[in-house]
Every structure is written in structure tokens, then in C-alpha cells.
Amino acid sequence: MTNKRYFFLILILGSLTALGPFSIDMYLPGFPVIAKDLHTTTESVAISLSSFFIGISFGQLLYGPLLDRFGRKKPLIFGLVLYILASIGCLYVTTLNQLIVLRGIQAIGSCAAAVASVAMVRDLFPVKDSAKVFALLMLVVGVSPMLAPTAGSYVTILFGWHAVFVVLLGLGVLNLISTIWFLPESFQPDTTLSLKPLPILSGFKQVLIEPQFYTYALTGALAFSGLFAYVAGSPLVFMEVFNVSTEGYGWIFALLSIGLIGASQLNSVLLKKYQSKQIVLVAISCQVVVTLIFVAGATLNIFNLWQTIVLLFIFLSCLGLTNPNTAALSLQPFKKNAGSASALMGATQMGLGALASSVLSLFHTKSSVPMAAVMAVTSILALLILTLNRSKIIEEQN
């Protein structure tokens, strides 16, 4: 594969992968305005974020078998069309319940892009290059939290929060066009696969019983769910606890994203000397230490705005190292069932992310303690899962 084609494929796959994160991040600065317009509270608006996470979680389980049965492009095109229709619906919502439902549908559409792009990495690139490709995708995805909240804040101020969904609609259309015209079909449809419930569940079971899959998929999902707690909790922490403006929040969010992006690219360098499993262990251990410090400082109320930013920067940097390696290690044992494995991995990640953000929404307090606590608990659980199951993987490989 030529360097030019390599770059072009990564760009398209990265754009597809970024659709979900961009859909999450861009409307965050508008939470207070949305709450005022829909006659509710900022905490209640956060439920629409949870509904998005839940939609992605369940939707990925739907698309996994479809991607293996019909190839990658047809289910992907269906999902993008659904995303576009839901985005149009969001332009006309007048109640919070309407927004919650449509965001869930929008998520089901966007997760087709997420599952397909991950599966296509397994299809199009050698196994030994998977972690590097995922790191490059993290670079593309990382641009979304840098641009989305900042752009969303200005769009909301200048044109109102509904205009954010006009932008998301445009992104959906662009991804649909690039998929139809420029993305190759990377997988020959397997017509032997049944879409009946029992065979589908049997296929999922074959993936789930693989020790390397459930260890690294669950470890990565737990570690990454702290990011969802950060995304859901950061509007309240920065704009209400530290009284940061809407524009200021967008810039802080972008600044913190540099940690995620930079670490994901550092990962490619580290892979020349260290194995993915070594990087994951060190990164998650560091993540645990940072979150425990955050909990202690938040409880004692001793951290100011910039100290909080520094801790979150380190936390996101750890995720930049963890995520591409756990993704590559989770999918490594699979070729035939890559679509189902990708779906299960994504569903686990989004399901735990939805749970983390939902737990956070239960706390109606102007404090960073709930966000820090959820981040710490998920990080500790990730480390426990990893350390308890590594021996099973070693035994199986031997």
C-alpha cells in the first residue's frame, strides 16, 4: 500500500471515527443555553448525553453482525443516513424529552461509523501495524475535542444552539459522500452467517470467551469510561465551579485534548521499543495515581483551576497511551469475526461510559468531587481487571 493511499484511508476512517466524539463534544458549551431554552436544568440536559452513550452502546451490538454478514459499506451507509435524519430532527426539538430521544437515535446512526472504521482497520492493515494505525486514528479523533467545543461555543453564541446540529448534519453528509465514493469495500460478505438471535449470540460468545479479548476490551473500556465522566462533568466543573465563560470552556477543553493527542502519537514511538501490553500496564497504573490525587485534592478543596487542568491533562495523556493499545490487543486474535469483536469492544466501552456519565448526573453539587471519584473508581477497576487476567492470556498463548 502506497503512503498516499495509506494516508487517505486513515483520513476517511478517522473522519468516520470522529463523528461520534464530535457529536458529543460540540454541544457541551451550549448546556446552559439549552437548559434555559427548554425550561430545565443543566444537569437534566446531561441526560441527553447519557442517551447518546446508551444509543451507541446498544447500536454497536446491532451493527457487528450486519458488518460481517453484508460487508462493511452497506450497514455503514444505513447508519449515516439514520444519523443525518436524527440530526435534522434535533433542529426542531421543543422539549428535553424530544432531544433525549433524538440524541439516542443519532447515536445509533453514528455508531455504525465507529464499528465499521475499527473493523476496517483489522481488514485493511497488517496485525503488526494495528496499534500504530489506531494511534493515527486517535490523532484524527483527537482533533474533535480540540475543535468541537470551541467551535460549538462560538456557533451557539452567534447563531443559537440549534445551529450546532446544522454543523453535525453537514458532517454526516460529508461522511456519507466519502463512504459511497471513496471508501473501498474491505470485507467479502459472509452469506453463511445467520442474523437470527441464537447464531448471533453464538458468534458473540466465541468472541467473549477469548481471554485476550475480554481482558483488554474490559480494561480499555473501564479506563476510557473515565473520559466520559470528564466529558459529562466538565461543563459543571469549569463553568459553574470555576466560573469559566462558555468561550473559555471551549479553549480549556481544546487545551486538554492536546494531552490525549500527544500521548497517542508518542505511543507510535514507544511501540518501537516496548510491547503494547507493557505500555497499557504503565499507563493505567499512572492513571490510578493521578485520579486518587485528584479525589483527595477535590475533597479537601485545595486545587485551583490550573491545578485541576494539569491533573486532567495527565489523565487524558494516560488514555492516549491506553486506548490504541487495548483496541489492537482486543482485536488481535480475530479475522473472521472482526466485525462482532469490534462491536462488542465498542459496546462495552460505550456502555460503561454511559453508566459513568449516568452515575455522575445523579450528583447535583457544585463540586469536582463526583467527577474525580468516578474517574478514580473506573481507573482502579481497569487496573484490577488487567492484573488479575494477564496470567490467563500468558497460559493460553503458551
CATH architecture: Up-down Bundle
Which fold name corresponds to the CATH topology? Growth Hormone, Chain: A
The CATH H-level homologous superfamily: MFS general substrate transporter like domains
Count of all domains: 1
Q: What structural category characterises the helix and strand content? A: mainly alpha
Reported for the largest beta sheet, the result is: none
**Shape descriptor:** globular
Span of the ends, CA to CA: 33 Å
CATH class: Mainly Alpha
Mean pLDDT: 85
Strand segment tally: 0
Low-confidence stretches: none
Q: What is the helix content? A: over 70%
- The total count of helices amounts to 14
CA radius of gyration is 20 Å
Beta-strand percent range: under 5%
Q: What order do the helices and strands follow?
A: HHHHHHHHHHHHHH
